[in-house]
Specification:
The protein is mainly beta. Helix content is 9%, strand content 33%. The protein contains 1 helix and 8 strands; from the N terminus they run αββββββββ. A hairpin with a 2-residue loop joins strand 5 and strand 6. The longest helix is centred in the N-terminal third of the chain and has 11 residues. The radius of gyration is 23 Å and the shape is globular.
């Protein structure tokens, strides 16, 4: 009498009926507010443009706070604060479901973020 190994067959069947593992999501890039920011970095509804001021103020971020960043926009309102001059803005997750914009001159780095438009 010949023995049939059922273990490989059973694991193959389980692999077909078992739910698949959830797909990995892209990791968010974390940006950090710089220590030179005093008293805070303002969070805006939009980055503005070369001819328009940034959008309404939604809140503030203190030095060394971090945020989950989505992308950057390099044609926003130009600001000159803390000895830095930029027109680059970074889109961050803000609140439960929304997004907001912070001025890149107040961040330690925003390298590696993709470009986006508001």
């Amino acid at each position: 009498m010949k023995r049939v190994l059922l273990a490989p067959l059973a694991s193959a069947v389980l692999a077909l009926v078992a739910p698949a593992a959830p797909a990995a999501t892209a990791a968010s890039t974390v940006v950090h507010v710089g220590e030179w920011v005093s008293p805070h970095l303002t969070v805006h509804a939009s980055p503005g443009s070369v001819v328009h001021e940034p959008g309404r103020i939604l809140g503030n971020m203190l030095p060394s706070w971090d945020a989950s960043a989505e992308c950057y926009f390099d044609r926003g309102a130009a600001l000159n604060l803390w000895g830095r001059h930029h027109k680059v803005w970074v889109k961050i997750k803000w609140g439960w479901t929304g997004y907001a914009w912070v001025w890149a001159g107040g961040l330690r780095s925003h390298a590696g973020l993709p470009f986006c438009t508001p």
